[in-house]
Amino acid sequence: MTKMVRAVAVTAACFLTAAFYMVGASTSVRAAQDDVRLDPLFERLATAPNPSDAMPIESEIWKIWIEFDEPDVSRNMKLGVYSMNTGQLRQAQAFFDEVIRLAPDFAEGWNKRATVRYLMRNYPASVSDIAQTLHLEPRHFGALSGLGLIELHLGHEEKALHAFERALEIHPYLGTLRFQVDELREKIRGQKI
User: Fold this and answer.
1) pTM to 2 decimals?
2) What count of other Cβ atoms lies within 10 Å of the Cβ of residue 189?
3) Quick one: residue 73, left, alpha or beta (phi over 0 = left, psi -120 to 50 = alpha)?
4) Which of 68, 77, 117, 146 would bridge with 122, disulfide CB 3.0–4.6 Å?
């Protein structure tokens, strides 16, 4: 296994673990991507001096992104995440379909379905859901990281690099992404010579 493949696997695992954990930790408050608490958190995240300082800020952002005050949306979200965690991907997708139907402006519903579709290797559908996630929340570093993973898997290294760089502009300490970006830059630079 190459260093790049290992780094991609670690980044994917970090992204999925954070996304799964945060659903269980959420409260039922209407928030999501338009919450007033997010702007100062993103400012702090972008200027965090090290990964240890960035981690609690990232966790708080995930908690806010997942919050929703409508019981049907919250229930379907939790059931979708549970299904995803237990490998029941078709069932998870059905729950996230319902989240999106009930709350089409809820970015994390789109992001969770994108994650399931990624796990199902339905990359075009995942990219479509990522686009909607980013339309609703352009700062979604998880969606950008996921987009980079898909582009890398498809052999689109420059597109992957662009997505990863955008994610790092928002979250400078996102998993092993810095390593991946450096390695991708070097590889692309070598191909152009």
Assistant:
1) 0.83
2) 9
3) alpha
4) 117
